[in-house]
Specification:
The chain has 14 helices and 25 strands. By secondary structure, it is of the alpha/beta class. Helix 2 packs parallel to helix 8, helix 4 packs antiparallel against helix 8 and helix 5 packs across helix 6. It is elongated. The strands form eight sheets. An eight-stranded mixed sheet has the order 3-16-11-4-5-6-17-25, sandwiched between helices. It has a five-stranded mixed sheet with strand order 21-20-24-22-23, with helices on one face. A hairpin with a 5-residue loop joins strand 8 and strand 9.
Length: about 575
Amino acid sequence: MDAQSRGRADDVDPADQWVLNPETGTYELRLSPSGTQSNSAPGRSSTGPASGKRSGQSGRSGRREVPGQRNRRSNRSPEESPDAQGRRKRKPKATRKKKALLWTGGVMGFVLVVGAGGAYWLYQHFNGNLNTVDVGDAGSKSSVPDGAFNVLVIGTDKRTGAGNEGYGDAGSEGHADTNILFHVSADRTNATAMSIPRDMVIDIPACPTKQKDGTTKTVPAEKKVRFNTSLGQEGRDPGCTMRTVKQITGLNVDHFMMADFNAVKELSTAVGGVKVCLTKPVDDPKSHLKLPAGESVVKGEQALAFVRTRHSFAGESDLSRIKQQQQFLGSMIRQMKSDDTLGSPTKMYGLADAATKALTVDSGIGSIKKLTDLAQVLGKIDAKNITFTTLPVIDNPAEGKKHITVVPDPTKADALFAMMRADTSLTEVKKKEADAQSSAAAEEAARLNGPRAKASDVRVTVLNGGAAAGSAGDVVTWMQNQEGVLKSSNGSNAPAKVPATVLAYAPNQADQARKLADLLGLSASALKPGTKDAVGKEAMVLTLGPDFKQAGTPIAAPAKAPEGIQKVEADKSVCAK
């Protein structure tokens, strides 16, 4: 007979029948809600362990006295009960979701409080699972940086793990096969997950890497190669991939998380399977994916086949595969946040164990404590406010009609990067809409309202604070020759790099600042007024950040996403076509 049916009153929640005995430090089952229990269960002695009575325990025979236990006698009113003053009102029944969370919390609390030695073992166990890579100054030292931050998720095609040798080149060092830049907003309400095509042709910057023998080797820059060669080739580590992403997007990459084929198999199994949807049946001999039309649950080998297949869906390219990988990840996020996972200690442990074994991370999040700090921030973002998109690309013009590789779309890609740098969400979030109407936002916008100086009266010194080499000189030449800003000068490199372009000016230079903002396409947030008026020929200071691309191209982020780019929220189930 189970705990829910033994001695249960109709209005008693089964969870309330377990109480903590502070004398023993253990949870014990209270078999009767009325405070009495029968000792006549078949095959049990009234003095045996099943009776719940310890040697030397005081009280009536057959009844366990647990401090703090509520008296539920139905023939007494609260006023008549001798312990009425010490009784608490009975709480309403918890919802299914709350019970699941409470149960999970109770189990973890039991591990931490009752089994301190066990908790230490768990910490050491999970900590020992993690693999870390020191990427030097490519990443952040803080696990959760202030403001908006970016995490690069890398899926490699390295054939590690049992049964994975048959997937292509068994001796491969691994490429940056699947890449998603996860941008978390400064207010932590939303995130943009941008997939980066592996077959996109770009330039890879020079990068210092720590080799297996402990030495540091600077891998030379390489021009016009596929993005996936930014990892594993010529000794490149994940820090090289981070530096490459920064060079392409102008976004600082704070951390990376890398996983291989085995991670897909183990994580999908740990959560009990991931739901996917197909518009037609699939039987692909190359990836070994065989699924019917409609919804299926995949895990292990099937899950890996689903994210690897390229020939089962429209397009038969890496770009079409990206969409099904996003579908898979969105579904896995929903499954991880479900009651079915949160309410199962076995799944929670299995997921934590599988995740830590599967992950390689940078040293900035290279411990369970740091990784947990980051996970807590990511876990609070509602799935409906996580938007999957893909870096906009066009066919590589250097290949003519072959259409094998792609390059960034010169217009749409820059616009998307600008939105991410400005921390503009691709998802409509009510909180951000409210913030836009705040007095602070209105005051910032007012900086652009007012009189403009003549271009010939604008006096500015231009510094390079993170833009491409030579940008400061290019801007000065353009302003003088094209826009008539003759009182502009090149101040060379800034004392420190800046995350985005900024114009510092004195209150009595506001008309000059507005004019320069018009010419360069600066947003109000890029204008930083000082508190003291400029004296004499003192110039404003324009510091170019990584968001600056070239003279004549507006720096301000667009108010909305470029037309035609893909946007799918993580809470949406989309069927692969």
